[in-house]
## 1
Amino acid sequence: MAGAGRLAWRNRVEALLMVDWEFIGKASQFIAEEMGISLKRSAISPNIRERMDHSCALLDMRGRIVAQAEHIPVHLGSFKIGAMNLIEWMHSLDIGHDEGDMVITNDPYITGTHLNDVMLIAPVFYNRAILGYAVNKAHIVDVGGPVFGSLNPNARNLFQEGMIIPPVRLVRNGSPDSGLLSIILANFKDPSTAAGDINAQIAANRGGIARIREMMEEYGEAVVTSGWDHAIMHSRKLALACISGWKKGRFQAADTLEVGKSTINLKVNLDVKSDGISADFTGSSREIEFPLNAVKGVTYSAVAYAVRSAMDLDIPTNDGLYSILQVSAPRSSLLNPDKPYPVSGGNVETTQRITDVVLHALSKSVSSIIPSASSGTMFNIMIGGMRGNGSLWSYYETIGGGNGASMGRHGESGVHSNMTNTLNTPVEVAEKEYPLFFTSYIIRRNSGGKGQWQGGDGIMRSFRAKEACTISVLADRFINPPYALAGGGHGKTGMIYVVHNGVRKKYPSKFTLDLLEGDEVIILTPGGSGYGAKNPDK
């Protein structure tokens, strides 16, 4: 029996050594996806439950991303910056190193996005050692500050956007710190909804930890960690293979964002080489006292998204893909600001423009792949007020637009483009949850740019306030339309109107306004631009 036992043990060891690293990589990706499903189904707010404004990832013990769920692009690339920043903070503060701990923060200068994106990280222990981390981000609809939704169009510093949660241990030995959670929630306008969403984040991390441990038990620590290493190397090889056929050299592009009736500049110098791609944003605007600054994580995330979108292979999203990218922006600039400059709009609007400008530069390297510009705005709508019982409510929505056309393909109409990737909030859900009555939700016909291939049309979405409330809007592409390639026509710019007592008034792309009962808001999102001259032979 002893001999048979040794033989069985040796056969199991040999079988485990033969486990393909790709299996470990796919299993890890599935764990991240399952975390995302758990978070979505457990969340309270429609923003997460319906729109899926959240993301999940797994890290190894060195803080490298080994797997990510395919969720929000602006979250995904920012994990590369934010997770490493947070792990360094955990070491410096000596927190989050015990089994059952979870650390929370929303400081955008650490997490790499903005205050609404609350980040929760948990160490994964196996045999009493940390072998990795489970991490997620979720957009909490309101994190305090003077406006409902916390994306304050008039913020001049970070403190005017909402509550800053530094890295702090929220969960100790598996139990949430109720005192700390109560302090956090006391600063949010809709604490019961936020509490449900944060608890969903905790549950998602717990699920991820359990699945990683199951994988460790099944295949062993050495097989799993070796599989992660191979998966990262494989993604790097695939990424380098993708860019091997691209035209090499330095390619430049520029674009603008809107501040009132003025514009601010973005510029990129993109170097495409055989061993990787670098994006240098020298020449872009300096940091401003306006919420369009983009922290380094946002800038990196937008570049990573644009480059990956141009690749013709399905590359697993991990540190290997990110390793071929170098992103730099001057300190104290719009795309690498100093704390406490405001950054809420950098995550949702500037990120769209970074994507536009990088794709524009890439069109000079891989011209047949890159489309004309899409709508170029997340068109953020934040509304809130007081319920009859004295509690506050907050509603957040991003409105889709038109996709840009590309060679051989018309642009899609009425979709979220590029860095958002969220769903809409169904009218039925919004009307059930909030005192709003929707008067239209249709395609904005003929708003896409003309061309050999037509740009996608934007959206017309309008609603009437059933009681007094406050609306804040953070959008763009009201002045300069999305750019067009190969002689295509531009998509139409965005517009927003408020109808009060039968009088319709046009508003700019960024404002806060008190609405009275019966006031109607009419939103017209930009269309995508067309591609190619409409009659190329004439």
## 2
Amino acid sequence: MGFSGLVAEIFLLRELLIVFSGNELCIGIILANWLILEAFGCYFLGRKAEKSRNNVETFTIITILFSLSLLVAIFLTRILKRIIGISIGESIGFLPMFYSSFLILLPVSVLHGALFTFGCRIYSMFSGRDASSAGRVYVYETVGTIIGGIVCTWLLIPYLNSFQASIWLAMLNFTVCLVLLAPYWKTGLFQKTTLVILSVLIFFSGYLVFAGQADKVHNYSIRAQWKNHNVIHYQNSQYGNICVIENQGQYIFFQDGVPNIITPVPDIPFIEEFVHLPLLAHPEPSKLLILSGGAGGIINEALKHPSIETIEYAELDPLLLDLLRKFPTPLTESELNDRRVKIKHIDGRLLLKTTQNKYDLILTGILEPSNLQANRFFTKEFFSLVKKRLNKGGILVLGLPGSLTYLNEELKNLNGCIFNTLKSVFSHIRVIPGDGKNLFLSSDSRDISTIDRVQIIERLNQRNIKSDVIIPWHIEKKLHHGWQDWFSRFIEGSSQKINSDFNPVGLFYSIAHWNALFAPSLCRLFRQFERINLRTIVLLFVIFLLLFFFFRSKNIQFLRAGIPLSIMTTGFAGMIFSLMLIFTFQSIYGYVFSWIGLLVASFMAGAALGAMLVTRALAGIKNDLKLFIKIDLAIICFSIGLPLIFLAVHACLDSPGVSFFPRILFLVISFICGLLIGSQFPLANKIYLRNSRSLSKTAGLLYASDLLGGWFGGIAGAVVLLPVLGLTGTCITVGLLKLTSFIVITTQPDRHLWGGKK
């Protein structure tokens, strides 16, 4: 059950990420919906386990439906944009992300949640245990989850597509159910019929896998996803998804559903402006560094400058360059085979940290902080790194969304935030506004502020640059001094926040901008989110304390409510910790998709060990409530100390010879997080069962509370806490929230009645 849940979750997460343009913040929304739906299935469908006389048979039927619904969910995910009327390459707003992922996950998650409660009941029937059954099933499920994370990372994702993996998973589930139900084949017609159905399903699954039919289903779903487009290649890598479509010799390379490179005829006006204006602003550019997106025009235009000696081109995903060579055009062939071009299969930030080279210009081909991986190239830490690698008079070039007519507050905040971040590092910033993209030139040289049209046109003629757009009259227009004044007026009153690795407010403004375009009804909501700060969180906490002590009851039932509340806040903390690890890893390294399975497996390993140790010790624990409270306190302390750990990890990256250690430390932190979160659940079951007669109802209630807290954590963490409050503010928020449940339990005068000992 745990193995199946993790595999289904990871593959649906990857498929939805492709549809949601690789925006990592949707991970929180997807995981949150998964958890709330599991909670519903666990509590409402699972409650029937108490009354059911055929628990094994019902468990089998639910497993069958779960396995089949996973296949349907993958297909629906691939055609999601067609269903909701969004064109290929268009971004999806947060609201469609929420309801579409909710509906797609609905059958899969609800059915999987029901399996937990039925599993507790079945285990209790066979083992004769009551109080420890839920804890033991929780441990076993978590062990399955650990195995699922490892198998996904090293076997399923590298070698199988989503349909192949899901059919193999279904065949495994059908076989397990057949073994489970086989001893009851003489019981009645219902059991015999179920066994026959299982046998047929196993045979059919094997046929799909071994006869190559799973590949046909996979290819059919791709054609349905990219309807009216000629898909010539579709492949997942450890960094994301790449799809190549072709139309009359024109190739478009999509990364996570977003067009990245167009050959052999690219977006000529933008590319010529992006390359030639900065290079003409430099007196003699010879050494260039292009970080991502260089192939398909940028390198070609840069090579037109006669002073160019070397161009280093860093591209994180080697699959993209392999496909550019697999589907060559004269443009890409001339770019990638030029002796002056040095291709680096490495993350751009890692290259800047490890190289000793210095450059005249560094061009960032990532054109907005639309996700965490991209945001890493728009932070104060990145700009500081670039500054160290620029020669005297060197220039950093980057682009941001811009408009000369549609000037909304979100666009103003995005440009203002990145402008202020650049200003905190570089002495001089020159912005060239455009209708579509704003071009930012940053340098410590005063020359960047004083470049004029005459000088640029003179250099254009001296270098004999042949171009379609960058001609004298166009330069006259773009470099008119009035545009710089216009931009200064445009960002007046904009956000003064600084975008950083651990406080990615630039990402928040980018998302708010796209939501303003595609979901304008959410503008007010996002503007309210932006106003949230630590003062707001502390004020809410103080209000809660006042209300709690005013309405506090001496009734033992009030304490009863404190146990599910504590499990709910623990679920919230667990989700935030998981998202924090994923987001921080992505902010530092930029390739979390190759490690997400290991991070989840490490977290679940800690949760399994914590739950297992407590479950084994349950009988000997004299005061279980006291231990429960101590774990609550440990989670609070861990929340407050976590930012210091991450800051230390970040600092380690600048030390030579320790590049691998921080990654291992992420797994250790993930394990500790899981250890703290998992150890509370068995204790909560024992404490709550002391005043409840129903094992299934108790297990369902507490498991649902855990998942409900995780749902709140996923939504709040992804949309508000991490982007707006940053790492430190989010950790403090988690600590304060856990403190509320801690106060509810510890301030009750009769809590010893629940603890087994005063």
